């Protein structure tokens, strides 16, 4: 009997995790091949290192509250390389000043960020469970916690996760998991790896090198001989596969918007700052009308992100509010990022190292039309029995979401 074949299209964290869990499930009894259009797999989970500075081009960590992520890390032998984030304050930038975000009830009650009325509305909202999530994130947050909290807390939080617009994002689609009953998976602690997040994708690529075909541009499913096909590439990339055979599916996939993000890494001497950066960094509400979404002081978050007496900073720019960021010259982006750091902390000296990575289509947006779009995708998939779609435009954008969804697909797959 001929051996069964499974094909995975897309070699980001979703595809690589799926490759692992399928191999764990089937061993050598099934032929599994991953096709990646770029010269190397890894998607946006990549790390660059130079002169002991570590620059993350995409996510800088993951949370420990997802057992499937812990399982994957243990399976590939990276438990001893997991780094736990340091404890540090987080800030909000308003009118070019930094305000510490409350971390507990006492700091919340004493915070100058909130008026007495806004504190009351927020506390009352914790117990207000009858607000429908079938609306925009902004409208949901305003109805439950008040407009001020929606604008000052929820808006920048959404920028940090989705680089999105709170008025466009659909609450249930984007944050439905937060509304669901909590599973007891322990405290969510931010972690990364000794050599950065790229160590995770790098180990998977190394372990399954013989099953990965890079620089493989697939234009149609007819090009692949397989019993089951799982597409984990971005929605806009997958859409083209069905332009001729299923235009309705193509249209539904193309309707999912993506926010552009430019990530600028800056390495400084510690004495370059007039005011030494404290804490994890800060987020910027959209009503500040800045291209900057947020700033992470990476060397304050994780060990070994910068040499001694030096500081590593990441500036995230663009998002749904600033789509033209994708077309900017990298030199200008570097200058704007450094100007932002100078404005907030004061600089006596320019950065000594810099990196710029622009993602024209960085993060899928679960916007108000997303539920109808998802329904259309599911309906069209019934016409293609051997096909499964996955990726961060389905089921969550975080690293944990991608790994969890990959594990679920591997468990359910029959061949």
List the helices and strands and how they pair.
Blueprint: E1 4-9, H1 13-26, E2 30-35, E3 47-50, E4 53-56, E5 62-63, H2 67-75, E6 82-84, E7 90-94, E8 97-100, H3 105-109, H4 116-126, H5 137-145, H6 147-162, H7 171-179, E9 190-193, H8 198-207, E10 212-213, E11 228-231, H9 235-239, H10 247-254, E12 258-269, E13 281-283, E14 292-296, H11 298-301, E15 310-318, H12 330-345, E16 353-364, H13 370-381, E17 387-389, H14 399-412
Parallel strand pairs: 1-2, 1-11, 2-10, 7-13, 11-17
Antiparallel strand pairs: 3-4, 5-9, 6-9, 7-8, 12-15, 12-16, 13-14, 14-15
Helix pairs in contact: 1-14, 2-14, 5-6, 10-13
Task: Give your account of this protein's structure.
This protein is α/β, with parallel strands linked by helices. It is built from 14 helices and 17 strands. The chain has helices at residues 13-26, 67-75, 105-109, 116-126, 137-145, 147-162, 171-179, 198-207, 235-239, 247-254, 298-301, 330-345, 370-381, 399-412; strands spanning 4-9, 30-35, 47-50, 53-56, 62-63, 82-84, 90-94, 97-100, 190-193, 212-213, 228-231, 258-269, 281-283, 292-296, 310-318, 353-364, 387-389. The strands form 4 sheets. A 7-stranded mixed β-sheet has the order 8-7-13-14-15-12-16. A hairpin with a 2-residue loop joins β3 (47-50) and β4. α2 packs across α14. The longest helix is centred in the middle third of the chain and has 16 residues, at 147-162. The chain is globular, with a radius of gyration of 22 Å. 46% of the residues are buried.
């Amino acid at each position: 009997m001929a051996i069964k074949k499974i094909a995975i299209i897309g070699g980001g964290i979703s595809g690589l995790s799926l490759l692992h869990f399928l191999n764990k499930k089937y061993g050598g009894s099934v032929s599994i091949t991953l096709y990646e259009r770029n010269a190397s797999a890894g998607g946006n989970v990549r790390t660059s290192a130079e002169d002991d500075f570590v620059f993350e081009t995409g996510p800088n960590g993951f949370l420990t509250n997802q057992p499937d992520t812990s399982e994957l890390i243990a399976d590939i032998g990276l438990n001893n390389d997991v780094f736990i984030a340091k404890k540090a304050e987080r800030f909000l930038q308003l009118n070019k000043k930094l305000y510490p975000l409350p971390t507990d009830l006492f700091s919340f009650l004493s915070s100058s960020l909130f008026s007495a009325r806004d504190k009351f509305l927020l506390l009352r909202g914790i117990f207000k469970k009858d607000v429908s999530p079938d609306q925009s994130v902004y409208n949901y947050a305003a109805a439950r916690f008040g407009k001020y909290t929606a604008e000052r807390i929820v808006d920048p939080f959404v920028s940090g996760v989705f680089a999105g617009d709170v008025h466009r994002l659909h609450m249930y689609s984007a944050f439905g998991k937060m509304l669901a009953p909590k599973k007891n998976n322990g405290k969510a602690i931010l972690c990364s790896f000794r050599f950065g997040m790229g160590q995770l994708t790098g180990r998977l690529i190394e372990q399954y090198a013989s099953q990965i075909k890079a620089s493989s541009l697939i234009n149609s499913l007819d090009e692949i001989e397989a019993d089951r096909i799982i597409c984990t590439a971005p929605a806009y990339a997958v859409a083209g596969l069905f332009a001729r055979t299923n235009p309705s599916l193509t249209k539904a996939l193309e309707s999912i918007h993506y926010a552009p993000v430019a990530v600028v890494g800056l390495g400084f001497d510690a004495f370059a700052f007039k005011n030494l950066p404290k804490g994890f960094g800060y987020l910027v509400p959209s009503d500040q009308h800045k291209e900057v979404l947020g700033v992470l002081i990476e060397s304050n978050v994780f060990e070994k992100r910068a040499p001694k007496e030096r500081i590593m900073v990441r500036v995230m720019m663009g998002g749904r509010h600033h789509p033209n960021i994708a077309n900017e010259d990298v030199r200008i982006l570097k200058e704007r990022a450094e100007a932002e750091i100078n404005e907030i902390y004061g600089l006596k000296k320019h950065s000594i190292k810099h990196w710029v990575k622009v993602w024209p289509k960085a993060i899928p947006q679960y916007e108000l039309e997303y539920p109808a779009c998802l329904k259309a995708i599911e309906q069209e998939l019934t016409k293609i029995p051997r096909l499964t779609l996955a990726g961060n435009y389905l089921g969550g954008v975080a690293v944990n979401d991608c790994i969890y969804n990959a594990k679920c697909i591997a468990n359910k797959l029959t061949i």
